[in-house]
Amino acid sequence: MQSDLAIDLGTSNTRIFVENKGLEVDEPSVIAVNTEEETIISVGKEAYQMLGRTSDKKLAAYPITGGVISDFAMVEAMLKTFLKRVTKSSIGMPKAVVCVPKGITEVEKGALVNVISSSGIRKVCIIEEPVAAAIGAGIDISSPHGSLIVNIGAGTTQIAVISLGGISVSKSVKNAGNSMDEDIIKYIKKTYNMLIGKRTAEQAKIKAGSVISGTVPGTYAIKGKCLVKGMPIKVDIDAEELIEPLKKTADMIISQIQDILVETPPELLADIYTDGLTLTGGTANLKGIDKLIHEQTGLKVNTVSEPEKCVIKGCGEAIKYIDSKPSKKGGINPIIEKY
Ligand SMILES: Nc1ncnc2c1ncn2[C@@H]1O[C@H](COP(=O)(O)OP(=O)(O)O)[C@@H](O)[C@H]1O
Ligand SMILES: [Mg+2]
């Protein structure tokens, strides 16, 4: 029999969990194609290496932007390639639990469901991303208790208060990992007259970035293009310089968390004051982000190991409800719709 799957088609990473096996795909959501011959060159890690290094005939791109499909054909080709690695082609199509970002439109959700169906999934079971993140972080979502989850990915940050298996209040904003990378690019350009690529900016953020002084010591070498001479150059920056560009997004996220707290009903707010909030998503790895959120909101900040895997873990847990009736009203079954 074909194993059931869980799929997290993220802006920056695609993750596929196979029932009874585990996480089998965890790779960048990138596809490289030969535009002349209309063939796929590679997907995932290999394609990521080609970003910003392509010619007029070879193109590498992220086909999902801000959690939303920006190029249907490319997403389909990418997902089909990943699915081929985890399914046995001879025995029919698998069913899958798929997370959708909270806050996307019905049209955007329809496109997501379509692309997943046309990539070879027989039944698409929808779970909301913040709910998946909460389950993956070990939170008991069905209890009558409010939990605040802050999932900071690449394209979006989703902030949600979960209680009784459903979402009470939520917000989705575009301030997340990608906007941090863009602010690093702007900072380096303004300060050093130097142009750097998105990959270089992301690597600088991961290796030397922080949002609190005293967290990352030393210097970090950045290579790019001199805007004055047009030549390649290298600059050794102080790691602490990255705090300024990175804090812009972090401060925006914190003000969104404060807005959500204002909208949260009092009983749930009381729970959150006791338990604190839980940080998930790849950007939860950013050094000092937990401390900064704690300082600015006064809330306890719970962190988990491998926060980037919470959503796929939560989707994987939901596989056991694939054949149950979906529940729109919350409860222990987190699947809300089936297509
Ligand atoms: N150690 C790290 N420090 C800071 N940011 C990180 C780190 N590791 C991953 N990220 C960022 O996390 C984001 C990816 O998180 P993920 O939850 O996988 O995103 P998505 O679900 O949107 O695809 C990227 O912007 C990436 O740069
Ligand atoms: Mg995500």
Entry summary:
The protein has 3 domains: 5-132 and 312-338, ATPase, nucleotide binding domain (Nucleotidyltransferase, domain 5, 2-Layer Sandwich), CATH 3.30.420; 140-174 and 246-307, ATPase, nucleotide binding domain (Nucleotidyltransferase, domain 5); 177-245, Actin, Chain A, domain 4. The chain contains 10 helices and 19 strands. It is of the alpha+beta class.
Characterise this structure.
A hairpin with a 4-residue loop joins strand 4 (31-34) and strand 5 (39-43). Helix content is 34%, strand content 27%. The strands form five sheets. It has a six-stranded mixed β-sheet, sandwiched between helices. The chain is flat. The chain folds into three domains: 5-132 and 312-338, 2-Layer Sandwich (Nucleotidyltransferase, domain 5); 140-174 and 246-307, 2-Layer Sandwich (Nucleotidyltransferase, domain 5); 177-245, ATPase, substrate binding domain, subdomain 4 (Actin, Chain A, domain 4, Alpha-Beta Complex), CATH 3.90.640.10. It is built from ten helices and 19 strands. The chain has helices at 45-48, 72-86, 106-118, 129-136, 177-192, 198-208, 243-263, 266-275, 289-297, 310-317, and strands at residues 5-9, 13-18, 22-28, 31-34, 39-43, 58-61, 64-65, 68-69, 95-100, 123-128, 147-152, 157-163, 166-173, 194-195, 219-226, 232-238, 277-280, 301-302, 337-338. With 339 residues, it is of the alpha+beta class. The longest helix has 21 residues, at 243-263. Helix 2 (72-86) packs across helix 3 (106-118), helix 5 (177-192) packs across helix 6 and helix 7 (243-263) packs across helix 9 (289-297). Adenosine-5'-diphosphate is lined by residues 10-13, 153-155, 177-178, 202, 205-206, 209, 281-283, 285-286, 308. The site of adenosine-5'-diphosphate has 19 residues, from helix 5 and helix 6.
